[in-house]
Amino acid sequence: MGPQPIAPIVEPPPEMFAAADRLLNALIRGDRTTIEAMTPAHVRDEMMQIANAIPANKYDRFELIGRARVSKHYFLKAMLTGTGAEPFKFQFRLGETDGKWTVREALNLTGRRSAWSR
Amino acid sequence: MQRMIPVDKLARPEDHILLPANRTRNARSEQGLSPGNAMPYEDDFLKSRMHGICGGEFQAMEAAGRTLYDFPDAPWEFQLDMARQVWDESRHAEIYMKLLEYVGSYYGEFPEGEVLWSCTQAEDPAARVAGINRGLEGLACDVFEQLIRIAQKMGDKIIERSVDYVLADEITHVRMGSQWMRKLTEGDPERFKRAQEFQDRIDELFNFGPGRKHVEDVDHVKQRINDKEIEIDSGITIAREARLLAGFTEEEIDRLVKGFGKSAAY
Fold first, then answer.
1. Cys-Cys link to B177, which of B60, B134, B157, B161 (CB 3.0-4.6 A)?
2. Beta partners for residue A74, in sequence order
């Protein structure tokens, strides 16, 4: 059996996943109102650049392919897919203040290293 | 295969989050935490510290392998030492993967930083070993010695002995770095100076200003780790005994504490 863990693994809060789902669904739909509502002013430009890079009605699925936390903030790597469309990958950070999860930074991974092959 | 892999080409699995240091610092600052690494008084300290070290061991393994590949004309004995170091670092990575499980974490729970790989960016093997073996592995001696003392206060033999086992190897890596830095630059004081300057920059980068303190000078804070409250260091300490064993001089250690960041090869 060997030594047993001395502490439990920290599970991310369900609210964080719900916020990520909300954001990704909004991006797929091109729902600017929801995206803006989840994005503080200082991050809005970079988030909108990502929103502008995602053509409406081209993607219909998303997947969180990576996750890592810095204390209580979560870096998430997401991939959007759709029939006949190149997968779109980007990374963002979610943090919570007063019960509200918002985007703290966002980075388009297109053309950047994001896998073994880059 | 490409030589001299730059920082932005370090390959990782698709599901892995690899970040430049400034992004992690921003995320920490926004949460009211000190911008550098997790400090001993934070809840996540053990997990985060083990994770950072584990990533460091992976990158140290890759770095020694790259040094072997990047400098095919280096002496055969140098290449053998680098190959041995790859083996050592791979064992260390395995040990820390197990330690992560032990403290309730897993590799990938936190982002991996790029900063260690940035310390490999030297095109001279003498500078490469000065930076990695003397700069970074010297820092590892400090971090591991502190972790061993924390484990002792926790009464945790698993962590204490595992980290002590790894520390013993790191001491040999520092000695190896000092030996090769001197040997590769024999009769070429300018080359020695450039290698030393490369190491100085790395020492400065990780010295957190005059941030490292002697064990007897550091303040202490109470910290609850699982079911125990222990008194632990409030900051980063310097592993005087381990560094002396590794061949650093008293003068070099004092300079690191004072934040001069200059530690000439003995």
1. B134
2. A69, A94
Q: Give the CA-trace dihedral at B211, B224, B98, B128, to 10 degrees.
A: 0
Contact status, residue B8 vs residue A111, Cβ threshold 8 Å: no
Query: Is-contact B103 A5, C-beta < 8 A?
Result: yes
Query: A-chain residues within 8 Å CB-CB of B23?
Result: 75, 93, 105
Instruction: Report yes or no: B207 and B218 within 8 Å, Cβ to Cβ.
Output: no
Cα–Cα distance for residue pair B125/B120, rounded to 1 Å: 10
Q: Residue ranges of the domains in chain B?
A: 16-258
End-to-end CA separation in angstroms for chain B: 35
A47-80 confidence digits (pLDDT tens):
999 999 998 889 999 999 999 999 999 999 999 9
B11 CB-near residues (< 8 Å, 6+ apart): A113, A115, A116, A117, A118
pLDDT along chain B (266 residues), means of 10: 82 88 92 82 86 95 94 96 97 98 96 87 94 92 93 94 97 95 96 93 73 82 79 84 90 79 49
Count the residues in chain A: 118
Q: How far, in Å, CA of A97 to CA of A102, rounded?
A: 8
Tokens of A105: 């930074």
Architecture of the A14-108 domain: Roll (3.10)
**Which among B8, B104, B110 is the nearest to A5, CB-wise?**
B104
Instruction: List residues bridging with B224 in a β-sheet.
Output: B229
Interface check for B85 against chain A (CB to CB < 8 A): the answer is no
Residue of B99, B72, B239 lying closest to B162 (CA atoms): B99
| A70 contacts chain B (CB < 8 A) | yes
Indicate whether this complex's ipTM tops 0.95: no
Would you identify the CATH topology of the domain B16-258?
A: Ferritin (1.20.1260)
Cα distance from B224 to chain A (closest Cα, Å)? 12
Measured at the CA of B130, the angle between CA B140 and CA B216, to 5 degrees, comes to 40
Query: What residues form DSSP beta bridges with B213?
Result: B237
What is residue B218's DSSP assignment? -
